[in-house]
């Protein structure tokens, strides 16, 4: 018999989306609920030891297509991915496990899939609910992943945007489940 506290291939993965400096403080991209989301994520970390992946949003070296216009509007963010702006905040920088770095809002793709498998159960947390979390949830669900979004471990560009994004994701049930919190 297997130990129930030992992760299996069917155990969920905690995906900590973009808990980076660029989404804090006085940044134009700051998520006002960042600290609240960080506290929610910290509460979840012990439950996902060995099954946590963190993601980072970074600017592409050479924006293409619509991203050219995007970075024309947000030139402060067009810096190399090693710039301190894109560092993970603590304690997330020190969490054991892989980091997936993408120049896209959605983090579901070959890099994340290589870590979690083809049809995983993903527990999504992080910022911004109305951008990177939403884009990741929709793409992962479309690809056949089971997705749970933990509302109290996410933050949006505003509280209203956070709630609107959660409402949109609720429309995708049963592919996406929005949980207010994950109980111990």
As residue ranges, the low-confidence spans are 1-7
**How many distinct helices?**
5
**Residues in helices, as a percent range:** 25-40%
Cα distance spanning the termini: 23 Å
What is the percentage of strand-forming residues? 15-25%
Q: Please list the strands of the largest sheet in the order they lie side by side.
A: 3-2-1-4-5-6
How does this structure look, described?
- This protein is α/β, with parallel strands linked by helices and 184 residues long.
- Helix content is 28%, strand content 20%.
- It is built from five helices and six strands, in the order βαβαβαβαβαβ.
- The protein has a six-stranded parallel sheet.
- It is globular, with a radius of gyration of 16 Å.
Mind sketching the topology for me?
Blueprint: E1 13-17, H1 34-44, E2 52-57, H2 66-73, E3 99-102, H3 110-116, E4 121-127, H4 129-142, E5 146-155, H5 159-170, E6 176-179
Parallel strand pairs: 1-2, 1-4, 2-3, 4-5, 5-6
Task: Name a few traits of the molecule.
about 180 residues; alpha/beta; six-stranded parallel β-sheet; 5 helices; 6 strands; disordered N terminus
